[in-house]
Write a structure and sequence with these properties.
This protein is of the alpha+beta class. The protein folds into two domains: 37 residues, no CATH class; 92 residues, no CATH class. Helix content is 44%, strand content 13%. The protein is built from five helices and four strands. It has a two-stranded antiparallel ribbon with strand order 1-2. A two-stranded antiparallel ribbon has the order 3-4. The chain is elongated and about 60 Å long. The protein starts with 5 loop residues before the first strand and ends with a helix.
């Protein structure tokens, strides 16, 4: 069992590196394998996410701390775990955005949901398309 990386070329999935090519070469003709699909994270999108956090932080006046703003925005976007304390109190814990915690598809959804959450709360003077242009994501 091993991990293979594929890329789409002319409508067909092909090995993306030498190690993946060697694993695929060992398969017999007609042999079926089961694969789990994940899309590796894109570092450029992570940089855009933090640029979006900075830009939207600067566009609002409620939060004084950018870290608190980021956590609030992620949780408003639905990216949190609810923990019930022994006394019944609800604790909201924002989900990790580390590369090992979510793939690119999940991260893109989080990014879009954060934009929507910001616009819902503070976006009375800007559209989603305008905000995406400002942060160079659209």
């Amino acid at each position: 069992m091993g991990t293979i990386f594929l890329k789409k070329i002319s409508g067909v999935l092909a090995p993306a590196d030498d190690a993946s090519e060697q694993i695929i070469a060992k398969l017999n003709r007609g042999e079926c394998i089961r694969c789990e699909y994940t899309k590796p994270r894109n570092y450029e999108n992570l940089k855009r996410f933090f640029a979006m956090i900075q830009t939207t932080f600067d566009m609002q006046e409620h939060f004084d701390n950018i870290g608190h703003f980021r956590k609030w925005l992620q949780m408003k976007a639905g990216a949190y775990t609810l923990i019930i304390a022994p006394n019944g109190a609800k604790i909201f814990d924002p989900d990790s955005i580390s590369f090992s915690s979510m793939d690119e598809i999940e991260f893109q959804a989080l990014f879009s949901n954060c934009l929507d959450a910001f616009l819902e709360s503070f976006g009375d003077k800007i559209s989603k398309e305008e905000l995406e242009r400002v942060i160079d994501f659209g």
